[in-house]
Design brief:
The protein is of the alpha+beta class. It has six helices and 18 strands. The chain has two domains: about 110 residues, 2-Layer Sandwich (Ribosomal Protein S5, domain 2); about 150 residues, lpxc deacetylase, domain 2 (lpxc deacetylase, domain 1). A hairpin with a 2-residue loop joins strand 12 and strand 13. Helix 1 crosses helix 2, helix 1 packs across helix 5 and helix 5 runs parallel beside helix 6. Bound molecules: zinc ion.
């Protein structure tokens, strides 16, 4: 069955990209609505065809309106089983909060789910689909449920090679992925600021690595927090298919751009 929220909720914070105040009100929506961002009166469905930028964060756009950093809230909604929802955006960005999806998952749990009496459209992966770029790749294979198998490899003493495998939805999303924070490298901070796209980044919302280790005074929430955040981002990207996926999503050294290329292929196969 399709589900919406039991009641609306509102969250305020700052935007990662612009560093300005950002707020959202997430409201229940009718059957068949899907997950839709509303920016300056323009409805932007949270689907792969509305992705306009994947630098730093996933940005959606339509008819001149844009919303940035949709992936953590999208992941929490997808993993939480929320099919139909309107996300009213103030400030052009989703608040970055602590850089994770923990607060989104909590707010969704508190709002509760309401079944809407109409079956979901489910996309089942029927044959392997793969995209590659240099030594990075991402692949969907048939499976009975949504599963994730993700590997990252960074030439960095604290990160190195990390792998996450799991169900990545429902309770496992909350316990295994939702709390993992955004991460970045101190050497990239100035170039990103020069592009004007990381003005809100700070140690309060980003795990920052220098050449030796972690700069955040309180350290990491888990030794493999980095791959868990990448897995959280991958769930947010998968949410942009606009329907629950039955399939195993495997990726090696991939990012938003490669994930979205794979999802476009899956959308073509499912059409
Ligand atoms: Zn992220």
């Amino acid at each position: 069955m399709q589900h919406t929220l039991g009641r609306p909720f509102r969250v305020v914070g700052v935007g990662l990209r612009g560093g300005r105040p950002a707020a959202v009100e997430v409201r229940p929506a009718a059957v068949g609505t899907g997950r839709v961002f509303v920016v300056d009166g323009v409805a932007i469905p949270a689907t792969v065809e509305h992705v306009v930028d994947t630098r730093l964060a996933t940005t959606l756009g339509r008819a001149g309106a844009r919303v940035s950093l949709v992936e953590h809230l999208s992941a929490a909604l997808y993993a939480g089983g929320v099919d139909n929802v309107e996300i009213h955006v103030e400030g052009g960005e989703i608040p970055v909060l602590d850089g994770s999806a923990r607060l989104w998952s909590l707010a969704i749990r508190q709002a509760g789910l309401v079944p809407q009496g109409v079956p979901q459209r489910i996309v089942a992966v029927r044959e392997p689909i793969e995209v590659r770029r240099d030594d990075a790749w991402a692949r969907f294979e048939p499976a009975d449920h949504f599963e994730l198998d993700l590997t990252i490899a960074f030439d960095h003493p604290t990160i190195g090679v990390q792998r996450y495998t799991g169900a990545a939805t429902g309770a496992s999303f909350y316990t295994e992925l939702a709390w993992a924070r955004t991460f970045g490298f101190f050497r990239d901070a100035e170039p990103l600021r020069a592009l004007g796209i990381a003005l809100g980044a700070s140690l309060d919302n980003t795990v920052v690595y220098d050449d030796l280790g972690v700069m955040n005074p309180a350290g990491l929430r888990a030794a493999d927090e980095a791959v868990r955040h990448k897995a959280l981002d991958a769930v947010g990207d998968a949410a942009l298919l606009g329907a629950p996926i039955r399939g195993r999503f495997t990726a090696y050294r991939a990012g938003h751009a490669l994930h979205l290329a794979l999802l476009r292929r899956l959308a073509e196969h499912a059409a």
